[in-house]
Design goal:
The protein has 98 residues and is α+β, with helices and mostly antiparallel strands. It has two helices and four strands, in the order E-H-E-E-E-H. The chain has helices at residues 19-30, 80-89, and strands spanning 13-16, 33-39, 45-52, 55-61. It has a four-stranded mixed beta sheet, with helices on one face. Strand 3 and strand 4 (55-61) form a beta hairpin. Helix 1 (19-30) runs antiparallel to helix 2 (80-89). It is globular and about 40 Å long.
């Protein structure tokens, strides 16, 4: 089985409303690295490969055929309280404290 270097056997693909803003949020709040990005002719994100820590995934703009994804993700960090504060400062919603 071929699995690209740095990827796992499951590769999440997230469809987001305002995907460019979502990518910016991931970078600021969680130190995400955008590994590659292709924009559609209208300027929206066609697809972007992203990595947070050891996990890679894909993000693209939601559309009629691909509505926004609904999911929950656990992100392991060194200091959960500090990361929670930083995520809130970057615009995250406070669902509950760590």
């Amino acid at each position: 089985m071929y699995i690209p270097e740095g990827y796992g056997t499951v590769f999440p693909y997230i469809f987001a409303s305002e995907a460019a803003a979502y990518l910016s949020f991931l970078e600021r709040a969680f130190g995400a690295e955008v590994l590659g990005r292709t924009d559609a002719p209208d300027g929206t994100v066609a697809n972007a490969r992203v990595r947070i820590g050891t996990t890679a995934f894909m993000v693209s703009e939601a559309s009629g055929g691909y509505p926004p994804s609904r999911a929950a993700f656990y992100i392991y960090v060194e200091d959960a309280d500090q990361t929670h504060r930083e995520a809130l400062a970057c615009g995250a919603d406070d669902i509950h404290a760590p």
